[in-house]
Every structure is written in structure tokens, then in C-alpha cells.
Amino acid sequence: MTKPKTDSTAGIAGIFEDVALPAAADRTTSRRARKNTGRVTLSDLAALTGVTKVTVSRALNTPELVSVSTLERVRAAVQQTGYTPDLVAGSLASNRSRLIVALIPAMAGSVFQETVEALTTELAANGYQLLIGQSGYDESREDALIDAILGRRPAGIVLTGVVHSRDARQKLRESGIPVVETWDITREPIDMLVGFSHEKVGKAAALHLLAQGVTRAAVITPGDRRAQVRTQAFVKAFAKGSSIEIPVITIPSPANLGDGRRGLARLLDEYAAMEAVFCGADILALGALIEARARGLDIPGRLRVIGYGDMNFAKDTDPPLTTIRIDGTRIGKLAASLLVERIRDGEVDRRVVDVGFKLIERETS
């Protein structure tokens, strides 16, 4: 017995009981379009629902402008076909992108995670999507990413730090795209800035230890520029209260827990009389605490430890870690609001926002 032929659109037709299926020629054209582009188009949805492309577009973008029945039919077709909108084509048609791009050095175990989460949430609430680019700590890599980003004309760009190559800064200024620099401070931002002073962070850590009577301190720090600024400020401030040389162990960025252990081990072997260590990242401080415990050192009696970042584990170390807290969530929210305001109005009330920082004193110092 010959099996009767079935129409491939029968599943869709069952959803739209009051809609006539498109003519065979139309269905062939629709299938050809999908075959050529690899995706379902607005034309396909229009043919399946029996309405115009304009109506389908309204149902997807301004659903309040179409009837409930039409909206239900379009949504059913979207679910059945797996349709996804072509955001690039949409932005070209309207000359407005809804994409914001953020460049950060690293994601895993990063102090930037709160900022990324806040950016994503705040931008989504305003109809924008966030795309993350991981630049590492290599300026040439950042330049290449910036070139790629500018060629795609996003609605806005979020950068980590304020030191970029002269060529990159010039291209960003001339692009006309709103830019927010974050996690640093400068008197000459490219466009807008939300950050804090790394120099003041290093000074605050030094003054904290000096106030506790420490006369011999050392530093374990990542090698990136912002961490180096904190280290130099720490050494300068501490030197005013002590004539003892301040040893510095520099770790390639991004640093890890093992780097903290090895860094402290080296310091203890070469500078046994040191009384405190300032770690340029909480993960380094955690490694230092583990090494100190392995050697049976009393914290903070024998050795005081300060971190940077107030990562989610800092309050749960043994003992709880004294560290510098940066409000990454606030940085993300402010960066998003500045971008949205700039895109919408062409100008912002404040171009530079200093969010400051806070030294969180716990039991390691």
C-alpha cells in the first residue's frame, strides 16, 4: 500500500485553523530562501501566518500594535520554526545598533565579574545586548579587538582601564561611538569614565600597615599596569614611615593561587624579618595565607596580609582577609546608565565618576 504524501507545512497549518496555507509556489520560494541563507526569514513567517512581513515585524517588535489573535499566530510560527531575528540587518535598516561591546582583561575568577553582570542587567533593561571581548593584558591584542569592534559599529563601547595605545585612543575618539572607560581614573578620558584611583589604593594599604606599627613590609603583585601603580604608591607611602627596603615580587598577569604561595615562600626565605605583605590581588593573598599556614606562621601575629578586590571568598578565608573593596556592581550600573543616556540624548550630565574604594579590615591585619 502506497503511503499518502504529507505536506511539510501540515504541522504549522494545524496551529492556524483560520488561515489558508500559502500557494505551492510561495512555499517553494520560502523553502529556497531558507536553503540559501540557512535561516528562517520574516517572509517565511509571513507566508506561514497569512499576514504581511510588516505585520510580522510589528508582532515581534511592537506587539501592542497588533491584534491578540495575530500575535498568537506569529508567536506560534516563531516557536515552530525556531526563527531568530537578524539583528545586523535590523540595525542597518534603522541605522541604530542595539549592541554594546565591553573589553575586559580576563573573566575567570576576575574582579570584573560584578561589573559584567551589572552591565548585562542594566543594558538589557534598556533594550541593549552586551558582547564581551577578553583582551588579556596585551596592548596589541586590545588594539586588534578595538579595530574589529569599530568595524561593526556597536551602539557603545566599555573599556577596562584608561591607558590604551595612542592609535586606539584616536580611532575611538574619531569613531563617534560612545565610550566608557572603567576601573581606573584619568583627567583626560576618551569620552566618559567610571573608576577610582589605584594610586590611592596602594597608599591606603601602606598607611593601614604603618598605623599598626609595621616597619618591614613586602609586596606580591601582578604585572599589569594598574597593579604596578598600586605597588608603586604602596612603596612610596610606606617608605616615608620606614627606612627598610621593600621587596617586591612581580607575577605575570593574570596571577593565580600558586603564584601567591610561591611568592610568599620566596619572600620568607629571603626576607625572614618581614612583618606584612600587600598582595595585588585577593587570589595572591589566598595563596600567601595557605603558604603561611603550611609553615605554621601565626596570622596576624607573625605576619599581616592585605589583599585587593574583596572577592567572594575573602571573608571566608582562615583567618578572614583584610582587603580593598571595589564596588564593581556600581561601576557596571553607572557605565550602563552613562552609555544609555549618551546614546539617547547625545550628552551626559557627568562625564567622569570616581566611585572610590573601601579598605575592609578583617583578621589578617
UniProtKB/TrEMBL annotation:
It comes from the Bacteria. It holds the Pfam family LacI. Keywords: DNA-binding, Transcription, Transcription regulation. Residues 40-94 form the HTH lacI-type domain. InterPro entries: HTH_LacI, LacI/GalR-like_sensor, Lambda_DNA-bd_dom_sf, Peripla_BP_I. This is LacI family gluconate utilization system Gnt-I transcriptional repressor. It comes from Caballeronia udeis.
